[in-house]
């Protein structure tokens, strides 16, 4: 990748990460039979790259990543994975230079033509404009992606059972809850928001798989204007979140959570291992603040 022009995009990425950190202390099923789906080697997860779609959904541009060097696999990415595991093939097209005279500095579809990065053509389908996508090589895709069919929430759903168990674990009442997605296997991903205790805010991303329940904490402190993110008034809403995709083997579940706010969005990689505290890290950030 050409490095002289990467500084602006990298600084914007860093800004989103620092901002969020300061505020917070599938493709359709590959086969119908889940037993025939590929397994994941969680000891060797690949470093994934991320990009977003243009206004027509015909192209993706790769967000700058300092871990991808000049002679990396940039032109070898062959698949993109988006919200709810929807995936499609892509082809490398060209490296696009930064247009200093026209760029707004926003990593959005409206500024797509001005941003620096590797551009990929979407094959045989149309991407969702402005959505974030995970880019993988053919080998990575075949090794790591388990695309499970999403099912609509049934009329009766025992979310109250999840709430009751989590209230007991947290010793705190829940004020809001949403099922973010459900999978054919029965796996549920739920967001819970607990009642405030003075300035203390708390949300959990909960993974429920049969009798197993794991969670990842998102605590924050409310300062009268901001809590989890800039000027959110200490509140969370259902449309702040979506699930990019979920990977699962017999023991480990990894969830890629899209979190949106006024300034942009980040992708969290949340790893759930039995009898172990959730591992949480930000793997992608986009600065999309309105002008």
Using the alpha-carbon principal axes, give the shape: globular
Structural class: mainly beta
Task: Count the domains.
Answer: 2
Considering DSSP H and I runs of 4 or more, what fraction of the residues is helical? 10-25%
Poorly predicted parts? 1-13, 15-40
The total strand number stands at 14
Strand order of the largest sheet: 1-2-5-4-3-6
**N-end to C-end Cα span:** 29 Å
Describe this structure in words.
This protein is mostly beta strands and 291 residues long. It has two domains: 7-144, no CATH class; 159-287, no CATH class. It contains three helices and 14 strands. It has helices at 7-23, 138-144, 159-170; strands spanning 49-53, 59-62, 77-81, 87-96, 117-122, 132-137, 174-182, 188-194, 200-209, 212-221, 241-248, 253-260, 264-272, 279-287. It has a six-stranded antiparallel barrel. Strands 7-8-9-10 form a four-stranded antiparallel β-sheet, covered by helices on one side. The chain has a four-stranded antiparallel β-sheet with strand order 11-12-13-14. Strand 1 (49-53) and strand 2 (59-62) form a beta hairpin. The two termini are 29 Å apart. 39% of the residues are buried.
């Amino acid at each position: 990748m050409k490095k002289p022009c990467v500084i602006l995009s990298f600084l914007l990425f860093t800004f989103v990460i620092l901002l969020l950190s300061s505020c917070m202390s599938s493709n359709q099923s590959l086969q119908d039979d889940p037993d025939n789906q590929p397994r994941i080697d969680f000891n060797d997860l690949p470093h994934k790259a991320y990009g977003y779609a243009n206004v027509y959904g015909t192209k993706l541009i790769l967000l700058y990543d300092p871990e991808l060097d000049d002679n990396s696999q940039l032109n070898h990415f062959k698949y993109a994975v988006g919200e709810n595991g929807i995936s499609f093939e892509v082809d490398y097209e060209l490296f696009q230079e930064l247009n200093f005279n026209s760029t707004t500095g926003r990593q959005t579809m409206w500024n797509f033509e001005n941003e620096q990065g590797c551009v990929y053509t979407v094959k045989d389908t149309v991407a969702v404009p402005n959505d974030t996508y995970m880019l993988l090589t053919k080998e990575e895709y075949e090794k790591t992606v388990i695309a499970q069919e999403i099912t609509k929430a049934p009329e009766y759903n025992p979310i109250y059972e999840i709430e009751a168990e989590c209230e007991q674990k947290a010793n705190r009442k829940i004020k809001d809850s949403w099922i973010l997605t459900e999978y054919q296997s029965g796996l549920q991903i739920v967001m819970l928001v607990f009642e405030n205790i003075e300035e203390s805010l708390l949300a959990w991303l909960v993974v429920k798989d049969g009798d197993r329940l794991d969670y990842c904490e998102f605590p924050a402190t409310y300062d009268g204007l901001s809590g989890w993110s800039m000027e959110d008034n200490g509140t969370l809403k259902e449309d702040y979140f979506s699930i990019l995709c979920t990977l699962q083997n017999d023991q480990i579940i990894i969830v890629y959570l899209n979190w949106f706010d006024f300034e942009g969005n980040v992708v969290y990689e949340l790893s759930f291992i039995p009898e172990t505290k959730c591992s949480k890290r930000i793997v992608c950030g986009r600065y999309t603040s309105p002008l």
